[in-house]
Amino acid sequence: MPEFPPTDLFSLAGQLVLLTGGYGYLGQAVARGLAAHGATVVVLGRDATAFQTAFAAEPTIRFQPCDVADTASVQAALAAVEAQHGLPAVLINNAFYSRGSRPDQLTDEEFALGLDGSLGSTYRCIREALPYLRRRGGGKIINVASMYGVVAPDFSAYAATPQFTNPPHYGAAKAGVIQLTKYFASFLGPENIQVNCVTPGAFPSPAVQQQSAEFVDQLTRRIPLGRIGQPGDLAGAFVFLASRASDFVTGHNLVVDGGWTIK
């Protein structure tokens, strides 16, 4: 491997990063963290208006229309990115979609959609991005799981707020994302492609925080650091895994949860 100054360990200058789910609550912080370290970030998403609202005045964060639920859309988006920006160095699979929340009342369609929304979409994007990373001679893939892909929910935290109960297809899919990460880390290691995972928790959205202080309090009680996560707490994990600092790290699940899963 080439030598480089230690001061450049976390530099992403000249690196093209693809980020799905980049204009959401946590995705925005991830995109800005990467851009602050020199990366050009292309957000792959369906909603150009939401992107403009989030990043209107940030020239190193770009938008490319893409529906991660649709293979043809992913293929077209990646081809367009290469034509406009060149070959990507990093793919971050952060987008997800789901429907249904009652643990014992999900329909077959809801359960299948939830699995595809986290696990299927991640595999789809990895599969379609691999030819680009291979032509580049290597790169990094970062998947996004959840603390509920590591541990089961503590249902007492949801007793007073059942509307926030975490559904079974979400955790099952996120556990699959962690295993998919290990699988592809082993498969792609000889090709100089590192595959890692970030597992956040708990990062309730502003809407959830506004709706229920009691629910946030229930989460806070279970976190050893004594507070819920803020978006900025997550950005550094992605900078590390996208940068040279992690060149000898692969198949790892980096948990950013304030200590939730250690209990």
Explain the overall architecture:
GO terms for molecular function: oxidoreductase activity, acting on the CH-OH group of donors, NAD or NADP as acceptor. Pfam families: adh_short_C2. This is Gluconate 5-dehydrogenase. It comes from Hymenobacter edaphi. Belongs to the short-chain dehydrogenases/reductases (SDR) family. Helix 4 (108-136) runs parallel beside helix 5 (168-188). Helices cover 43% and strands 14% of the residues. The chain has a seven-stranded parallel beta sheet with strand order 3-2-1-4-5-6-7, with helices on both faces. By secondary structure, the chain is an alpha/beta fold. The mean pLDDT is 97. The protein is built from eight helices and seven strands, in the order βαβαβαβαβαβαααβ. It has a single domain (6-204, 231-256), classed as NAD(P)-binding Rossmann-like Domain (Rossmann fold, 3-Layer(aba) Sandwich), CATH 3.40.50.720. The protein has helices at residues 25-36, 48-55, 71-85, 108-136, 168-188, 206-211, 213-221, 231-242; strands at residues 16-20, 40-45, 61-65, 90-93, 139-144, 193-200, 253-256. The longest helix is centred in the middle third of the chain and has 29 residues, at 108-136. Helix 2 (48-55) links the parallel strand 2 (40-45) and strand 3 (61-65).
List keywords for this structure.
263 residues, alpha/beta, Rossmann fold, seven-stranded parallel beta sheet, 8 helices, 43% helix, globular
Give the secondary structure arrangement, pairings included.
Layout: E1 16-20, H1 25-36, E2 40-45, H2 48-55, E3 61-65, H3 71-85, E4 90-93, H4 108-136, E5 139-144, H5 168-188, E6 193-200, H6 206-211, H7 213-221, H8 231-242, E7 253-256
Parallel strand pairs: 1-2, 1-4, 2-3, 4-5, 5-6, 6-7
Helix pairs in contact: 1-8, 3-4, 4-5
Pfam family, one: adh_short_C2
GO biological process, one term: fatty acid elongation
Family: Belongs to the short-chain dehydrogenases/reductases (SDR) family.
